[in-house]
Amino acid sequence: MKNTINTLFVIIILNITCFAQSPQITFYNIEVSTPDSMNYIRVNTLITCSGINSIETDTLYFELCKNFKGVYFDSMIVKVNEIPVKTIKKNANEIRINIPKQLHKNDRISFSFQYCLLKTEDFETIPYSDFAMQANKNDLHINAAITRTDNWFPKLRDNYINRLPNFNLTIIVPLEYEVMASGKLTETRIENNKKHFLYTNYNEMTDRSLFFFINKNIRIEKIYKDDFKLSILIPKDTLKGNVDFLAELVHSSYKHYEKLYGSTNLNSYKLNAFVNKDMGFSGLYNSSNAPDWLFTKPIVNNELYFPSRNVAHEVSHTWWGNIVAPDAGFDYWLFEGFAKFSEPQYLRTILGDSIETLYRNRLKIMIAADADFLPPLKFISAEIQNNQLKSEAAYYQGALFLYTLLDFMGKNDFWLGMQEYVKNNRGKIVNSDDFFNAMQNNTTKNIKEFYYDFLNKPGFAKYAIQYKKGEKQDSIFKHCLQIENTGDKVLFTKFIKNNLNKKDTGFIYLTPGVTNEIIVFSYTSDTSNLLLIDPDNVFLVKEEGIVSPGAKLYRENTGLIRIFEILPESPFGKSGLENNSKIVSINNNKMTDFDFGQLNNFLLQKKGHLFNVVIEDSYNKQQIFNIQY
Predict the structure, then answer these.
(1) Which end of the chain is flanked by fewer CB atoms within 10 Å, N or C?
(2) Domain residue limits at 589
(3) Domain end among 456, 478, 505
(4) Strand ranges for 203-340 from DSSP E
(5) Which of 406, 421, 456 is the last residue of a domain?
């Protein structure tokens, strides 16, 4: 096929009359089909636009394949009110379309775009390319969980994040294929030896973008006593016990999230087994994907309920990213921090309350290693080149911030704020200010400085503790300590005073530069362990002078300790140490009895500290690396 148009971002310019009101798309009718080879996608899109008046000539802009890396469109045919129009390529980024003069007086115009979507020659080398799009005989899909695919069909310029109008989406496939797509399935028919699946938008709310997955899975339906309907596309070699387990996981997490965040009014859900080399999980509007191996292999969950917890994570994206839809380019944490936070909210119902502390602790360990390099909660996604830091900031930091906000506001006010956030912004495009307003409306505490410090400033809050004085009163020692906020953001954390062999707990709130005096009584003159800051290691705080190593350690089942996720700009990265190196010892400490938390807390050292790290390569040869903090 000749590549008549080969560009990542095309603006279609329509010379029509200027607009007395803003033009808007009021309806999409999209048909997707495939050739027998299944190696590209045919798209026929009929768009109805309104808000057009005739005064004088002006220009209307459409965007197509904006930022859709690895994919281009070809063989474009454009019609206006069923009349073909000549398209003239103006430059690499836009196409000019002349509208027939007799149509200028119409307030409502329909545009027909016929084109093919194909993979670029470098498709396989682009990260997550086949997570976003694939076209072959085993798997053909466009995954709207990834925002760069939002524009695989034409949209008005600068409207790519807006909620869609009503739509019909028809997917035409060979008889042996099944489909999961956006909206509700209203009709399945066979015509010309092909299956036709017709999806329309939900009555309650339409989608943020459109997706479809075409594969040779088997469709099964489950209906629960509460009339909840679950449609699942499963591989042929699925284990029966896995289907029942995953179905109940979806059903119970969905219902729990409705209690926490508000009803969807849909009482249904779609789950698809997804084959993908990068990742298998993706959360969509009232639908999600899970990797095929979760269906075909025995499910063995670890102490944090991985991998099953990821299913609950994706179910929560019905709320976080769809019912409430941020712009991932600027507020990625409103997608992923909220979904990560939702995981333990559900897990509490099956594992008990203790899972929350364990979960928070693990998240803190993961980002404490990189705290000196983390962006703030709100960042411009395109400016962060390191995907590891981008994910840690949005997922882990976002979830921990929500937990900190919960502790600061109190449970009742926090959950009222969360429910107001969803209720007031249902079906809207939101940003971090909208979430702040909902939370502030439900508490008498002023959360503004705390909220926006973490939203806009990178890293953890910092503190320093000084022993000021002590005196003996009869058999009791009175100790005076001072804690100071030495960073540039609000410090909020839990603390424990070891007061006369009793553990007195509380919270401390300090703005930058402010100090607080704490009195502790004891039976001895020993000043160690009088005051513990963040005793469970779950808050976004760290002691002044502690340097993030920019690397993490883990133990394999064999007992071997390896290093991973080394940041190039970190102390470990600068040493030249490579990911997955086998660690023999650090400063002669073999750490064989350390658990995950102990391993990684051991790496948190003060500025100036020196580590001698002994590694063993694949040839069993040892090397020594000097790590300077």
Answers:
(1) N
(2) 546-628
(3) 456
(4) 212-215, 218-223, 229-234, 268-274, 282-284, 287-291, 324-326
(5) 456
